[in-house]
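Lab notebook, design round three. We kept the backbone fixed and only want residue identities now. Task for the bench partner: fill in a sequence for the structure below.
Input structure tokens:
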């Protein structure tokens, strides 16, 4: 029961951060989930619960999607998903935990430093495929894809258009990954129970996040979350080193 309560709290905070800061659901959720559960279950729970969040953002902002950019992102992210599913199926728990730790640290640094990957749309295609693979293997995709976009024409889109366009890619990746979990046998009864118990956490986190978004200093909140992410990253790395 205590684990279930901890998982619920983690998912509530992750959803709150995603709505209030505009990023970070998996970055916040996966490290503590990997400490509470086994690495595969942590990835599957976080990735599965990302599906409704991504679909909700996409539906809300559908009128603002850059269709040309979204088409490229969807094709390339989906191309990477099978590689991530393969990694999730074949890697040992310790290796997967190491991969999660590396992804969290890299993702946090990409967001913190606002890294721009040069290379235009070619770089976008490559980073999109890497993002799809990373999501399927670790549930972390946003920072990789955003970094790729920053050196292309898509970075010049209005913020709402860029968010809507990214939401299309994230939705496609998360749905495809969920299908992969079904066929790969990762959606076990235990994981299904955690997902169902975590669903109300998304609603609560979204409710709180919307209100925080209106009241808090966005930049201060962003920096606070990034510090928490670094602490979380260190905790996972420590577990890897001491395992």
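Proposed sequence:
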């Amino acid at each position: 029961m205590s684990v279930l309560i901890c998982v619920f709290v983690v998912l509530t905070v992750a959803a709150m951060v995603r709505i209030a800061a505009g990023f970070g659901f998996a970055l916040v959720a996966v490290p503590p989930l990997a400490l509470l559960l086994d690495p595969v279950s942590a990835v599957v729970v976080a990735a599965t619960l990302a599906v409704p969040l991504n679909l909700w953002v996409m539906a809300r902002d559908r009128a603002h999607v850059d269709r040309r950019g979204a088409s490229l992102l969807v094709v390339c992210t989906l191309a990477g998903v099978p590689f991530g599913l393969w990694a999730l199926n074949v890697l040992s728990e310790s290796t997967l935990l190491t991969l999660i730790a590396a992804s969290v640290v890299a993702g946090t640094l990409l967001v913190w430093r606002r890294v721009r990957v040069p290379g235009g749309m070619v770089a976008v295609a490559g980073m999109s495929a890497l993002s799809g693979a990373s999501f399927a293997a670790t549930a972390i995709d946003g920072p990789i894809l955003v970094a790729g976009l920053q050196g292309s024409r898509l970075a010049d889109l209005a913020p709402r258009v860029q968010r809507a366009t990214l939401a299309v890619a994230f939705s496609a990746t998360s749905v495809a990954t969920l299908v992969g979990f079904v066929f790969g046998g990762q959606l076990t009864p235990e994981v299904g129970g955690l997902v169902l118990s975590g669903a109300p956490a998304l609603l609560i986190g979204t409710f709180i996040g919307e209100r925080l978004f209106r009241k808090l200093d966005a930049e201060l909140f962003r920096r606070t979350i990034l510090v928490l992410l670094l602490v979380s990253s260190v905790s996972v790395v420590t577990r890897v080193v001491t395992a």
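Keep this in mind before ordering anything: The chain has a mean pLDDT of 85.
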